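Fold this sequence, please.
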Amino acid sequence: MNFFYNLWYSNSIKYKLISILLYPFSLLWICIDKLKFLLIKPYNSFLKIICVGNINVGGTGKTPVAIFLFKMLKKMGYNPIFLTSGYKGKISKPCIAHTDVTLFGDEAVILKKTGPTVVSKNKLEGVKYIETLNSKKKIYDIIIMDDGLQNYSIGKDLCFLTVDRKSLFGNQFCLPSGPLRQSLNSCKKNINKIILTGNRNFKKNHNFLKKNFLNSYIKVDKVSEKKKYLAFSGLGNNVKFFDTLKSANYDIVLTKEFEDHHNYKENEIIGLIKLANENNLKLITTEKDIVKIPKKYHLKINCLKIKIEFDKQDLFSLKSLLKKKLNDRPIIF
């Protein structure tokens, strides 16, 4: 991942040249994406569907935003349900998620802590599965889809694009020469709002953003004790996690990076605990990582819980947008 991160985000002439050489493959990627958009007829559910997606490969804060929206919708009187693919989980057919991370994947287990969650590798089948659940109980009125912006088989009522304000869009090329899953132009046509995520200390501007964005920020409990830490994670953007810790005044001495959605082996956890002890450090990781670690080790590992907050005006704008989009079409049971 370090090679591709450098390729996509570095200003080095070396990586820029490699990126240019790969650009013909990016054009092919763009053509395939365009064909999918033109040829696939979207299925329109009788339930409202909100998609929280990204355009970059890697983490942009989709899951915390989806959780924030779920809680906001509950306060507004709606009954939402999450839909996620259960990446790296073993479940293939649509089903309601439980707490087994091996079966359902880390994202589903995290979402399940907030509200009912359906896991489905095929998201269209997941939508139809929720419809059958709803026809029996008639309790869900909104599906919050974690990821799926590039899934053209499902009609959406509202689409949010999450963008990390530090990384933005890298070199702005599509895969493999850049980090984008679709071109900025095609993405712009399919989204209602951009939600900027990450540390508020990073302030970058981009023409794509203009006025069509909402500011969200990472909120964590700042450290009260002077301890030194070994931070580890297996995320799409591990550096973002380490930056968050440092911004919250955590004294990070060592870091260990793993691949996105990494499934930890017991010997890896024992090795991390040993390394921390040898250097008189405390271990700290994320919620997504801790759910994949046996509970017998949890007392030895600190977990940083992340929440999202918005500027007051942007929070008002978000609520107004939800009201407008969710009330412009009656919910049918």
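The chain has two domains: 48-218+309-327, 228-305. The first strand starts at residue 48 and ends at 53.
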